[in-house]
Amino acid sequence: xxxxxxxxxxxxxxxxxxxxxxxxxxxxxxxxxxxxxxxxxxxxxxxxxxxxxxxxxxxxxxxxxxxxxxxxxxxxxxxxxxxxxxxxxxxxxxxxxxxxxxxxxxxxxxxxxxxxxxxxxxxxxxxxxxxxxxxxxxxxxxxxxxxxxxxxxxxxxxxxxxxxxxxxxxxxxxxxxxxxxxxxxxxxxxxxxxxxxxxxxxxxxxxxxxxxxxxxxxxxxxxxxxxxxxxxxxxx
Amino acid sequence: xxxxxxxxxxxxxxxxxxxxxxxxxxxxxxxxxxxxxxxxxxxxxxxxxxxxxxxxxxxxxxxxxxxxxxxxxxxxxxxxxxxxxxxxxxxxxxxxxxxxxxxxxxxxxxxxxxxxxxxxxxxxxxxxxxxxxxxxxxxxxxxxxxxxxxxxxxxxxxxxxxxxxxxxxxxxxxxxxxxxxxxxxxxxxxxxxxxxxxxxxxxxxxxxxxxxxxxxxxxxxxxxxxxxxxxxxxxxxxxxxxxxxxxxxxxxxxxxxxxxxxxxxxxxxxxxxxxxxxxxxxxxxxxxxxxxxxxxxxxxxxxxxxxxxxxxxxxxxxxxxxxxxxxxxxxxxxxxxxxxxxxxxxxxxxxxxxxxxxxxxxxxxxxxxxxxxxxxxxxxxxxxxxxxxxxxxxxxxxxxxxxxxxxxxxxxxxxxxxxxxxxxxxxxxxxxxxxxxxxxxxxxxxxxxxxxxxxxxxxxxxxxxxxxxxxxxxxxxxxxxxxxxxxxxxxxxxxxxxxxxxxxxxxxxxxxxxxxxxxxxxxxxxxx
Lengths: 236, 528
Known about the structure:
The structure holds 2 protein chains of 2 kinds.
Chain A: E1 3-12, E2 15-19, E3 22-23, E4 28-32, H1 39-47, E5 54-59, E6 62-63, E7 74-77, H2 89-94, H3 105-117, H4 133-147, E8 151-155, H5 163-180, E9 183-188, H6 191-197, E10 200-205, E11 208-209, E12 213-214, H7 215-220, H8 224-230
Helix pairs in contact in A: 3-4, 4-5
Chain B: H1 10-36, H2 46-79, H3 85-94, H4 100-111, H5 116-123, H6 134-158, H7 162-170, H8 175-203, H9 207-212, H10 221-230, H11 235-259, H12 281-311, H13 320-355, H14 357-367, H15 375-386, H16 396-433, H17 438-466, H18 471-475, H19 483-492, H20 496-522
Helix pairs in contact in B: 1-13, 1-15, 2-6, 2-8, 2-12, 3-6, 4-12, 6-8, 8-11, 10-11, 12-20, 13-14, 13-16, 13-17, 13-19, 15-16, 16-17, 17-20, 19-20
């Protein structure tokens, strides 16, 4: 279950991003870079929300460049608006399994199990507005869990949460990803997140998404561009 | 929370409450003045009930047809991005500031006895159309309100976050699922308030009923008030009808207000959100046909006016010069009063929202009173009030300007208040923190954020007043006619050619005034 970018070129409103590398299964990746560098654009491309004018995206050797979003092996979490405000927690998770919400007993059991795993077993009938920001994202995680796709993409979904809560969420994600043999791709602007959860990091600078590098060794010996981003480079 | 560094100056507060007092005097005081001067022995007779039934029926069907048709049109606009889409949406907005009498004239040119369709019918040996009465009134109301409803629904559609459409695509939802999870909730949120708003506007509509209705079988309450005052000088009847209309509309407004979300009438509705649920060829052609038909329905009457107007420009009567000057003066005065009141009342509401939200809501409600009041009763009441001091006929123009300002106020506040609230939440604290004085605060921190909305609102108020055929019809002396009144008199005396030339002039000045103010508000406001 590998994801390959074959000479991918993305263009979007005047900026350009290239990527040419392979992501291995069962690993946790972070995509790191300053805001506006194209992190989310790369994620949109993987999820199928962007037209790609050059290069290919391959999943297990199969070209998915033109595959519609629904048929890609992906679960995606946004920073915001992951839930429909007019649906209960149960239904918000349920649309991950039955988009028409015609649920039978087995569906409901599976949904409740997923909610239980993210610690929301007793919030089933609440509405998103009654939940905290962290709880809302947990509902979205439960949905991803239920869908059980080989790739899980997170677009800064915990950026608005405090450090302790953020770690708690990352722990839940790591647990699920490890248990289900899922490949995780986390987009973040915070090096802390990358260090906390990822095995390898893809650093984006100057329109190039670099090949994944072991996160610890990357931060242990950061290249120039990363030093600039981190602000650790000494003057002179 | 810390105390505000700047105490609210007594002067601005005084101005705010003064404006509210003026508003109450004009809308409720005038009704009271009419009541006091009548004996209340009179009641409704059977003919009056027929008028009430007709009013409610036509308003109901006008609103129903507008709203039902607006759903597929809005969906087509939300679903497709095509060349001219922005123009189409702007065009939908333009119908709101079109002078009613001009639109009616255009509608008659297409649907009337000697209109386009009738001439096609008569060449094939059939009877010409006759739209006077219920049909014509509903047709004209749909002409005005289908665009309004479409914009309201479209706004709901475009407020859906992109993430939700992506989510639907991700989860592999079918078109049916998207309808269920996204489109139905949108319609749920927008349709009831759109229906009630249009129902309200159609209940109080006057110029349409005056030109396309009339007679015992097609009279609306507002028209009955006009006739009672103008021809019978029957104050009790006018007051009775006005009170009835007031209560009916207040009832509707009380249901509608909590349902209504702040509306942006602004021109630039965004590009459609990119969607991934497939649109079939059939749907594509169906939407295209729908948009073309809607476009023709709205555009044909207007182009008929243009063509006829240019053709008969030489038949402009000499009286239009005075009438134009009168109209422009009234329009500018009324727009100035309206925006002044809107700014003063909005800042009062904004300030009270922090301290006393209930009173703030109440004041917002009061500012909408003119939506439910009859401009004729306001006019008559004002006449009665000033009669002891000065001959009211001398004041026909100032009174018209004031009434027009008050009638446009709800729209102006709907536009200005949200912008002011945004500016206040985003920059108000910063300004307080910097210790700006009251005036500097408004001038430097708030006004630059407000200017585009204020310009837009002022253009709207000016155009509405320019095209208004209301109070002036009641009180105008022969030499103090306005442009819409001149046009109505020409139409009533079957001088259609001259009327078409006046129509062209009226529409040009109305849209011109709107354009000048709207553009004026945008100067130097390109900063994001």
